[in-house]
């Protein structure tokens, strides 16, 4: 019950007034000790006493983001929704500066655009010092006019997202708001009048068309104000045009960037494909080279084995010849009849064997003649 909005409260900007504060910050406020002890059962009349006790402003602070008493009182005002006259009295209060800031902050959250500019812009002339609690728990020095400028020009203050308001020149163009008049403008006009009074009367008559003393306002200043107002409009229009050009340029850059990215992707794809093809060709060439080396090695080993076998045969034949030469000694050297007879028998057997191999001793005379002829031609004998 203590955290519910007043049933008689009206919805602001189409929603519950307490929804103007984010849910996380709202739950932290509901769990805060100051909210439970000091803000329970407050009304619009008793809220003033609590506001007069404030000694600093701020949103949340510390590691667990505790809300400040200032933020708790803002939440209480959103809950009970005091009348507009009470809020205006808060703003006009010159004795207690934190009461003034509390009313200005609440009006910035709930007021209309015209009321925000109408009641907050006069506070630019208040230069009193304020203590502000930072997020780390330390205090910093600020001023009333700086806080008002933050409320009118930014979208975030004291850890709360501020509702959007229209620009001042828009309201002036719609004739919903009068042009802003500086508090020092009257002092400037008085200084100008003193300077004019000190000048001769002839010069005053010559410059009578430039000054309007019956109305108390300078027509040249009015023209300058209109010129400045038009320049603001043209400046905003130029800014919108420049923004559109920059947006189109950025969009064109994005297209070029996407096109370059596609080209690089295709180039990388083709490079990978070429590398794969080159790798395959290189592997094929390596395989062919290995096969050629293997075949060359086989031929070399075959020729080497053939040469070795030939050398071995020659070596064996030489040894055989040497042994045969040693064994077949001339009979004159030894003078042995048996040794001389043995080679003759072997020679006769060999000659008989060669004759038998020639086929000339075939019993058929025709085949024997044919074999002789074939032996003379170097052909193999007939075997029938």
TrEMBL record:
InterPro entries to which the protein is assigned, alphabetical: PRP38, PRP38_C
GO cellular component, one term: spliceosomal complex
Record keyword Secreted present: no
Positions with biased composition (Basic residues): 297-310
Keywords: mRNA processing, mRNA splicing, Nucleus, Spliceosome
Domain Pre-mRNA-splicing factor 38 C-terminal residues, every copy: 179-269
Keyword Nucleus among UniProt keywords: yes
GO biological process, one term: mRNA splicing, via spliceosome
Domain of life: Eukaryota
PANTHER family linked: PRE-MRNA-SPLICING FACTOR 38A-RELATED
Known function: Required for pre-mRNA splicing.
Family the entry assigns: Belongs to the PRP38 family.
This protein's name: Pre-mRNA-splicing factor 38
């Amino acid at each position: 019950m203590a955290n519910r909005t007043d049933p008689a409260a009206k919805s602001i900007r189409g929603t519950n007034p307490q929804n103007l504060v984010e849910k996380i910050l709202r739950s932290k406020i509901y769990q805060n000790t100051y909210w439970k002890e000091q803000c329970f059962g407050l009304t619009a009349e008793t809220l003033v006493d609590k506001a007069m006790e404030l000694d600093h402003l701020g949103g949340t602070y510390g590691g667990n983001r505790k809300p400040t008493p200032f933020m708790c009182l803002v939440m209480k005002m959103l809950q009970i929704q005091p009348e507009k006259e009470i809020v205006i009295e808060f703003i006009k209060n010159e004795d207690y500066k934190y009461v003034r800031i509390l009313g200005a902050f609440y009006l910035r959250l709930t007021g209309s655009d015209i009321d925000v500019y109408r009641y907050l812009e006069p506070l630019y002339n208040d230069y009193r010092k304020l203590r502000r609690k930072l997020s780390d728990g330390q205090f910093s020095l600020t001023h009333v006019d700086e806080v008002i400028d933050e409320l009118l020009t930014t979208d975030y203050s004291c850890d709360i997202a501020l509702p959007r308001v229209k620009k001042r020149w828009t309201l002036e163009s719609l004739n919903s708001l009068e042009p802003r008049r500086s508090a020092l403008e009257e002092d400037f006009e008085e200084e100008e009048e003193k300077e004019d009074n000190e000048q001769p009367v002839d010069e005053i008559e010559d410059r009578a068309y430039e000054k309007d003393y019956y109305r108390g306002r300078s027509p040249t200043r009015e023209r300058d104000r209109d010129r400045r107002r038009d320049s603001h409009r043209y400046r905003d229009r130029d800014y919108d045009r420049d923004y559109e050009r920059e947006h189109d340029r950025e969009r064109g850059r994005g297209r070029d960037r996407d096109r370059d990215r596609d080209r690089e992707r295709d180039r990388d794809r083709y490079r990978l494909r070429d590398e794969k093809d080159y790798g395959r060709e290189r592997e094929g060439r390596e395989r062919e080279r290995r096969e050629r080396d293997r075949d060359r090695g086989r031929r070399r080993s075959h020729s080497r084995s053939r040469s070795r076998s030939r050398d071995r045969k020659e070596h064996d034949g030489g040894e055989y010849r040497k042994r045969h030469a040693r064994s077949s000694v001339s009979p004159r050297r030894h003078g042995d009849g048996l040794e001389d007879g043995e080679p003759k028998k072997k020679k006769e057997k060999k000659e008989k064997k060669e004759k038998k191999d020639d086929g000339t001793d075939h019993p058929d005379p025709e085949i024997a003649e044919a074999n002789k002829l074939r032996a003379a031609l170097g052909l193999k004998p007939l075997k029938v």
